[in-house]
Amino acid sequence: VKRSQDYCTNHRQNGQVCLMVIELGIDLRFYNEVRIYITKAEHTSDLLSNDSEFASKLAAASALVSLSESHYADAALKFASLSSELTNQFNSVLSAEDIALYGGLLGLASLDRQSLQSSLLDSTKFKGRLELVPPLRDALRHYVRAEYKPCLSLLSSLLPQLRLDIHLASHIDTLMEMIRHRCIIQYFIPYNTASIVTMAQTFGMEMEEMEATLVKLIGEGRMSGRPRIDSLRKMVSTESVRNTERRKRREMEGKVKKMGETFVRETEGM
Length: 270
Prior knowledge:
globular
């Protein structure tokens, strides 16, 4: 197929050959080749400005490349920005339902609530697509309303389908973990103290699993308020205002002391 470019006599033919190579590269998972030919098509063809369908197909292929590289936020925004006119014209690679599924799921895993609302749920380009996947549409709505248990329950109902998807299968466990972690982090923000037992029930998890997840999130510094876990009482609590002020004062004193010691050493060395 690549050699066909040697016989192309105009930009349109060259662009179509690039698109054929892109489709084959996606089928074979040669995403480096896909990226190269997307760039070639963008720079050697006038179809981008004259053929909106061609431009949309290149954008969809670019979104799949971002997904393959685990650039989930970038992929989500690319899927969300695809023209609503692209439905099943590219079904050798992905269908209209796939676009909705990928954009919505990747958005849940990587975009904040405001971006989800503006880029997916309220987007004139994307909100119509979500009607093709009602469970995902409802999961997104539950998430932006902070209704995390029904959100995760709906996503779990999609798991058998997602595990069979050729583009998502290798990413689905990571994506589900990212979504669950985001839900837990968002859930805890309004509280100073929360029961681990209640959180486990809310998210449909075993208490030990919830506690281990909280330990991981706190250790990674992803939960606000520097929370601590009381394993005896099964509670997680944020640092009090007084303790926060004391900690910041100690940290400042340590920085000042270190700066003073550095200044003395440099002065003595002159």
